[in-house]
Amino acid sequence: MSGARGWAVFRFHDYRAYVLCRFLWQVGLQIQNVAVAWLVYLVTSDPLALGLIGLCAFIPSVPLSLVTGPTADRYDRRWIIIIACFVMSITSIVLLLLVLNGWLAPGRMAPVYATIVLLGSARAFANPAGQALMSVLVPDEEFSSAVAWNNSTNQIANVGGPAVGGLLLALGTMVPFAVSTVCFLAAVILAFRIKARPPRAEKIRATWPVIVAGYRFIWTRPVILGAITLDLVAVLLGGATALLPVFAKDIFMTDAWGLGLLRSTSSVGSIVAALVLANFPLRAHVGRTMFFCVITYGLCTIGFGLSTNIVMAGAFLLTLGAVDMVSVVIRQSLIQMETPNEMRGRVMAVHTILTGTSNQLGEFESGLLASFIGAVPTVIFGGAGAIASALLWMRLFPTLRDRQKI
Known about the structure:
Layout: H1 3-7, H2 13-44, H3 47-58, H4 61-74, H5 77-100, H6 110-134, H7 143-171, H8 175-192, H9 208-211, H10 213-219, H11 222-238, H12 244-251, H13 256-279, H14 286-306, H15 310-337, H16 341-356, H17 358-373, H18 375-396, H19 398-401
């Protein structure tokens, strides 16, 4: 694919508005996440407290996954995004007030955790609706490029968000939450600019068979099932994001800027990989490529855990981000292209709970384990687990392993 061809997807106005909307809400989330993680660890000095942030973000996703998918398939996905982003802005305002009034103190973290639960609820609705909406904004022949560009802009947000969050913390603990509020409200405005697209299919009733249809569909598709569950297990075991405040403060002896740097470095690799894939999509051996990337992800996680300085750690995170992006693009393209439009909302809701929220559950697992054995052994164990899961899944899902094209 030529460079001009790669940019062609941006000629669609609604896709441009969608990408910018999602970019802003991701920037807001990243700024908020890095600020919350830093402040919680600064106040408590407890890795388990960091893990509880991930658990609180995960908790609402489990029950809500039963309704967010049918909601995305039954109602205007644009309005779901608008409401969800508005709720996200409310969480930023609440956190701003908590900081402004000096309510962040050891033993008084309950309001913070409750706010994170509300934020997780909003994300549970926004993610499947957003991913399902993207599929109808561009023609099928542009879809692979749209996925790659969408992931690229998301990773730019993942780079800018943590870095900006770290810098904003230096200006004052309330500043990051004020900026994230602005980002969320701007995303609401952009969502209004997308042309309304009611579901093409006849409106469905939210019966139990409809609710669980996404799970049943995935269970009967080995390629989709293997791709989703591999990411679930690998991220659950190999995620070290929750422990970055520990590495920044206690191992590399840096301040908030160091945390922002660590959070951003992996996304730099992701951006480079996404830009390459947007212009030169994979043509063959996509299954084996995905497994190779997961194994490399595990190796880089181990390397990060063994790093003795922030430069070495950054090099491993850079590579980790690149291979993770390749895996993400392959997985999302396979899922979206093999799922009919009338099922995409429900399937993407399941995808959100099994992969997107595995990050939060993985953060809880990392924080809990680190409170017993320490941060470094936890990260090394997680990387080894990601490698082992990839090798096992290659045997369990040969159809996925031998998949040649998207």
